């Protein structure tokens, strides 16, 4: 484990599954141990997988998806919002949302399928109209009770998620991000030990 990172080398599959169904045609999951660009194999990736039309990959070491599956890649570390380019994250969220609403089967994956994929899945659900709490609850019920254990992400979703979604919708209408408002979304957030799971 690298100091300062939550990203680790481990095999952990919530509910024993590589991915789970979050909503109709929307899935959230991780990356199999043998589906990475380095290291020994543990959990096996499917030999061929036509379960998805599109995949969002948020884990930089994941191998590209199979032929015929559209992929959006944006790797970032599982740490804090300040380590993520929110403009690029918005591109990923809107892309996944449009593919999903267009009828595609979309998988949002990271390493273990808990935090990064949880953050993006929550934002996609919020883009559709759910609140931060509804999105978090849905993900924890369908993926794992341990999903979104990164309290930085949860606190940020609850405090800034709705405003961020409004900014993304405005950008889709041709209104660019306000740099000051975007910078405000990076403000340090205290992590509450009283967070209700």
Provide structural commentary.
The protein has about 200 residues and is of the alpha/beta class. It has a single domain, classed as Protein-Tyrosine Phosphatase, Chain A (Alpha-Beta Complex), CATH 3.90.190.10. It contains 5 helices and 5 strands. A 5-stranded mixed beta sheet has the order 1-2-5-3-4, with helices on one face. The chain is globular, with a radius of gyration of 16 Å.
The CATH architecture would be: Alpha-Beta Complex
Structural class: alpha/beta
Question: What about the largest sheet?
Answer: 5 strands, mixed
- Secondary-structure element order, as H and E? EEEEHEHHHH
Mean pLDDT: 84
Number of helices: 5
Kindly give the count of domains: 1
Summarize the structure.
The chain is α/β, with parallel strands linked by helices. It is built from 5 helices and 5 strands. The longest helix is centred in the C-terminal third of the chain and has 22 residues.
What labels describe this entry?
35% helix; five-stranded mixed β-sheet; Protein-Tyrosine Phosphatase, Chain A; globular; 197 residues; alpha/beta; 5 helices
Write the layout of secondary structure elements.
Elements: E1 19-23, E2 26-29, E3 54-57, E4 70-73, H1 86-101, E5 106-109, H2 116-128, H3 132-142, H4 151-172, H5 179-184
Parallel strand pairs: 2-5, 3-4, 3-5
Antiparallel strand pairs: 1-2
């Amino acid at each position: 484990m690298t100091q300062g990172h939550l990203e680790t080398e481990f095999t952990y599959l919530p509910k024993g599954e590589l991915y789970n169904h979050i909503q109709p045609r929307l899935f959230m999951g991780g990356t199999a141990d043998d589906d990475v660009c380095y290291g020994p194999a543990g959990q096996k990736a499917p030999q061929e997988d036509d379960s998805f039309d599109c995949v969002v990959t948020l884990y930089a070491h994941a191998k590209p998806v199979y032929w015929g599956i559209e992929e959006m890649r944006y790797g970032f570390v599982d740490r804090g919002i300040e380590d993520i380019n929110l403009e690029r994250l918005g591109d990923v969220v809107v892309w996944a949302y449009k593919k999903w609403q267009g009828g595609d089967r979309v998988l949002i994956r990271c390493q273990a399928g808990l935090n990064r994929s949880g953050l993006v899945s929550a934002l996609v659900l919020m883009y559709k109209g759910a609140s931060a709490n509804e999105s978090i609850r849905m993900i924890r019920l369908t993926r794992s009770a341990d999903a979104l254990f990164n309290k930085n992400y949860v606190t940020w979703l609850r405090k800034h998620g709705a405003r961020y979604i409004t900014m993304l919708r405005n950008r889709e209408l041709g209104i660019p991000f306000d740099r000051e408002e975007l910078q405000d979304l990076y403000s340090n957030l205290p992590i509450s030990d009283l967070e209700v799971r």
